[in-house]
Amino acid sequence: MLSCVDDLMTIGEFSQRSGLSPKRLRSYAAGGLLVPAAVDSASGYRYYSPGQLREATLIDTLRDAGMPLADIAVLLCDPSSDRLDSWATRVEIDAEHRHKALDVARHLLSIEATSFTPVSQDRTGKEPRMTLNTVSRTDIGLVRDNNEDAVGNNEHFAAVADGMGGHPGGEFASAVAVALVQAAFTGRSLDELEAAVRAANWAIWDRASASAELEGMGTTICAAGLTGDGSLVVVNVGDSRACVLRNGSLMQLTDDHSVTAELVRRGELSEDQALDHPHRGILTRALGVGPDVELDSASHPAEEGDRLLLCTDGLFNEVSNDEIASLMEATDDLHATADALVNLALSRGGRDNLAVVVAEISL
Ligand code: MG
Q1: Once rounded to an integer, what is the mean pLDDT over residues 129-155?
Q2: How far apart are CA 343 and CA 19, in angstroms?
Q3: Could you tell me the distance, in angstroms and rounded to a whole number, from the CA of residue 311 to the centre of ligand 1?
Q4: Cβ count near 217 (within 10 Å)
Q5: Least confidently predicted of 99-103, 163-167, 327-331
Q6: What average pLDDT does this structure show over 97-101?
Q7: Coil/strand/helix, residue 317
Q8: In angstroms, what is the span from residue 178 Cα to ligand 1's centroid?
Q9: Rounded distance between C-alpha atoms, residue 239 and residue 197, angstroms
Q10: Region of residue 288 (phi > 0: left; psi between -120 and 50: alpha; otherwise: beta)
């Protein structure tokens, strides 16, 4: 029992005087901020001192400015106007990104309202040239408690995403990433797909910065689209993959953005060593962890009969590229291929969530 609580306020009193809800106070304390001055060891009651009211107002003001709790913690430990200036610069950059995202949205809305042409129709009025037949699967696997992988696909688009940040952030981030990019990509160009991914990055980062529950979330994204000029455009962030099977050969179209993949590319680690490396799962890039994101993007000439696979690491950590290639070649039935890939990964232990899109380019 506390020896003296005369000067202290209960969490209810402190909440009333500071204007911060008890829930918010608890979430701040969980982040190491505004830690109660005392806690009754018997009852667990939290007590705050009157001197903490100023700190409460300061923290809440900085939250209003959009500053994440981790940055606030650093600022309180080492208060300096330089830190505030640097945050002000970030806010300006964010505002610029919001304006860009709004410009993209305005552009897309005006296309839809006036002259939107689905990608399956050539914009010159000729017969459609190519379409993407897609089938997707996602599976929780055999070990995880929730599924943080997401898939999205339609007749000109395919994407997979692998969320991170725990429940509920990881699921939220991957689902939002796929949904936003799919909604914004109309099959126009690689630039359009890049803008869609950047806008999704900003949306996830903004949401993560504003919510203690979602803070720290992020996701990979690997998105591919077929454009009206017959190109397969691909944008990638993180360690999900896009591969194409052409004439019996499986070619990986994307580079993984992970610590081990970077070491392999630099010649400091072999592919085999990377398989068991303790840092295998650590990403060097992800969507939603900052206001801007570096994208890998490329445009490839699409050919009729190309088979496309997009997948998260839950598949390729369990199933080799040779096995993937032979399963993709084994049948023309895309549903059967997707099922076979997922089932093989599950039979190997299903240690991670799985997301798979298989697709075929056809006239
Ligand atoms: Mg994964």
Answers
A1: 94
A2: 53
A3: 9
A4: 29
A5: 99-103
A6: 72
A7: coil
A8: 15
A9: 15
A10: left
Structure tokens at 304: 């009729």
Record the tokens describing residue 228, joined without a space.
């009206």
* Residue 44 host element (H or E): none
* Under 8 Å between Cβ of 160 and 254: no
Secondary structure element (H or E) that encloses residue 118, with its range = none
CA of residue 200 to ligand 1 center, whole Å: 19
Å from CA of 312 to ligand 1 middle: 6
- Backbone dihedral angles phi then psi of residue 222, each to the nearest 5 degrees: -130, 115
Query: Which residue type sits at 152?
Result: G
Q: Quick one: pLDDT at residue 330?
A: 94
pLDDT surpasses 90 at 323: yes
The span from the CA of 38 to the CA of 55, in Å, is: 16
Q: What is the 344 CA–ligand 1 centroid distance (Å)?
A: 16
Q: Is the pTM of this model over 0.70?
A: no
Task: Count how many Cα atoms sit within 13 Å of the Cα of residue 150 in the half-sphere of its side chain.
Answer: 24
Q: Which two tokens stand for residue 334?
A: 């895309």
Nearest to 94 by CA among 168, 204, 180, 192: 204
Compute the C-alpha angle 45/47/52, nearest 5°: 150
Biggest CA-to-CA distance, the chain = 85
How many whole angstroms from 162 Cα to the centroid of ligand 1? 5
**220 Cα–ligand 1 center, Å:** 9
User: What type of residue is 89?
Assistant: T
Distance from the CA of 313 to the center of ligand 1, in angstroms?
Answer: 5
Sign of CA dihedral 193, 130, 256, 345: positive
**Distance between CA 229 and CA 129 in Å, rounded?**
8
